[in-house]
Design a protein that fits this description.
Layout lengths: L8 H20 L3 H13 L3 E5 L1 H16 L4 E3 L13 E6 L5 H13 L2 E6 L12 E4 L8 H4 L4 H22 L3 H6 L6
Helix pairs in contact: 1-6, 3-6
Length: 190
C-alpha cells in the first residue's frame, strides 16, 4: 500500500511568504499615473473587452466578472457572445511575457479598430507592451528560488489578480458602487 505524500508545512509556509512578498513588491511598484489613466479609460469606454491566454485568461475572466458586477459593459474576447470591438472601446490584455502570438494579434486588431488598449505585462520591453495606450508593468524580479516556490507564471498571475481586484476597488469608489449594489448584479444572488 502506498503512503500518501507528506505535506511540508515549512515548504508551504516559505512558498506562501515568497509569493506574497514578491506580489506585494511588484504591485507597489506600479506607476500611479498609469492606474489613474487606466481607471479613466475604463470608466469612459462604452464597452470593455478582456483578453489573456492560459492562466492569464483566467485572471482576466475574474476581472471581467467584477467589471460587470460594478455595472460596466465587459466581455471576454473569444467567448461566443462577445460583440466586436469598436472605436472608443477599451481592451485590457494580460500577458506575463508579452510575446504570445494571440495577444499580439488581438492588440493589432484593437489598434486597427481604434480602440484603447491597456496592457498588463511583466515585461515593458515586450512586443505587446509597445502596442499599449496605457502600460501596466508588473516588474517581477527573478530570484534563484522562484522556480521552487512559484513555478512558471505564478507570480505574474497572482500579482495580476491583486492588481485587477485593486482596480475594481478604485472603480467602485469612482462609480459610487457598494458591495450591496454589486451583489444585485451577481449572476447568482448571494
Amino acid at each position: 500500500m502506498r503512503r500518501p505524500p507528506v505535506v511540508s508545512p515549512v515548504r508551504f509556509g516559505r512558498a506562501a511568504r515568497y509569493i506574497g512578498d514578491r506580489v506585494t513588491e511588484a504591485v507597489d511598484r506600479i506607476d500611479a499615473a498609469a492606474i489613474v489613466r487606466t481607471t479613466e479609460l475604463l470608466l469612459r469606454a462604452p464597452a470593455i473587452f478582456i483578453y489573456g491566454a492560459g492562466r492569464s485568461g483566467i485572471i482576466g475572466r475574474a476581472f471581467a466578472m467584477r467589471l460587470v458586477q460594478i455595472g460596466l459593459q465587459a466581455y471576454v474576447i473569444g467567448e461566443s457572445v462577445t460583440p466586436i470591438v469598436r472605436r472608443g472601446d477599451a481592451v485590457f490584455i494580460l500577458s506575463g511575457r508579452g510575446e504570445s502570438y494571440s495577444s499580439i494579434q488581438v492588440a493589432n486588431i484593437v489598434r486597427r479598430e481604434g480602440a484603447e488598449l491597456v496592457v498588463l505585462t511583466g515585461r515593458a520591453t515586450s512586443k505587446l507592451a509597445h502596442t499599449a495606450t496605457v502600460l501596466l508593468e508588473l516588474a517581477l524580479e527573478e530570484t534563484p528560488d522562484r522556480p521552487e516556490f512559484a513555478p512558471l507564471g505564478t507570480l505574474f498571475e497572482s500579482a495580476s489578480l491583486r492588481l485587477t481586484d485593486a482596480l475594481i476597488a478604485e472603480l467602485m469608489a469612482r462609480r459610487g458602487e457598494t458591495e450591496e449594489s454589486m451583489r444585485r448584479r451577481h449572476a447568482i444572488l448571494v
